Please model this.
Amino acid sequence: MNVNYIELILGVIKDIRVILTIVAALFIIEFAGFVTSYKKKAPKPKKAKAAKAAPAPAPAPAPAEGGEGGGGADAAAAPDKG
Model:
């Protein structure tokens, strides 16, 4: 029996059928591990629909800063009567 075992082993390892079988087996093992360890995430609580609020009233115009008389831009444009 004059068999070169190294050539025989390399011939088996390089065979495409062996490679495909190893890849398929690893895929199945990894997928099985994922399935067994999978934990479903808890669903997020749904928010209750809030009643639509009435539109906010428009803000009142702020008084203009100025000198005496409390006049804003209108008072500055009008001539002084006095």
